[in-house]
Amino acid sequence: MIRGSSDQAGTQFVRSEAARVRISPWMPRIRSLECAHMNEDRPILRPAARVLVIDEQSRLLLFRLNTGDRDVWIVPGGTVEPGETPEQTASRKLWEETGIEHIDLSPCVWTRRHIVAWGGKTYEQDERFYVARTPTEEITLDNIGAEELVLLREWRWWTVEEIERSDALFAPRKLAKILPAILATDYPDEPIVLDS
Q1: How far apart are CA 50 and CA 109, in angstroms?
Q2: What is the pLDDT of residues 109-144, one digit of tens each?
Q3: Taking CA 147 as the corner, what is the angle to CA 142 and CA 148, rounded to the nearest 5 degrees?
Q4: Which of these, 178, 73, 67, lies nearest to 123 by C-alpha position?
Q5: Containing domain of residue 122, as a range?
Q6: Is 6 exposed, middle or buried (0-12, 13-18, 19+ CB in 10 A)?
């Protein structure tokens, strides 16, 4: 037998003999994620937004994260939450991870889809990249989540020449090759699809 109820926010609860299931307003997305998770061979689709933060000296802000088996340098960003646009996510993550707020974002300049392991699960991360130019090089990690802070090893501002000379791992991998156009504010008319 199945019975239902709802709370003040309109979230429905369905009770069956086997389990209580929460049906939220964004259930189609959640159902697709759950279905993907139930099939262990398929990664869970995870939309994300990232921000290429560039200072007045044409340096890019990068975070070095430990992913378990290696360190990788990435730009700020993260998962698109239900009800958010990728642009809203980019602004939120920029504030959470740097303290920078009230700054204009470019249109999306790059997209990238890749497989990533996180928290014991495998995700197919669908990323959109935006550019934010900042007059300051000072950031704060005061707003970053504890889960992310554990992975963060360091942060720093990089010139494109330093990235070219480094043997570190960057994401996207071809960052040194594709960054100069962004630094020159030569943004594409349509987002460039990156292969890794």
Answers
A1: 10
A2: 999 999 988 778 898 999 999 999 999 889 888 888
A3: 60
A4: 67
A5: 41-194
A6: exposed
Instruction: Kindly report the CATH number assigned to the domain that includes residue 102.
Output: 3.90.79.10
CA 131 to chain centre: 14
Residue 104 lies in a domain: yes
Query: Based on the number of CB atoms within 10 Å of its own CB, is 129 exposed (0-12), middle (13-18) or buried (19 or more)?
Result: buried
61 domain residue, yes or no: yes
| Number of structural domains the chain divides into | 1
Q: Does 26 map to a domain? A: no
Question: Model confidence over 63-120: pLDDT tens digits?
Answer: 999 877 789 999 999 999 999 999 999 999 999 999 999 999 999 999 999 998 877 8
Closest CA to 131 of 47, 176, 188: 188
Written as six digits, the tokens of 40 are 């262990």
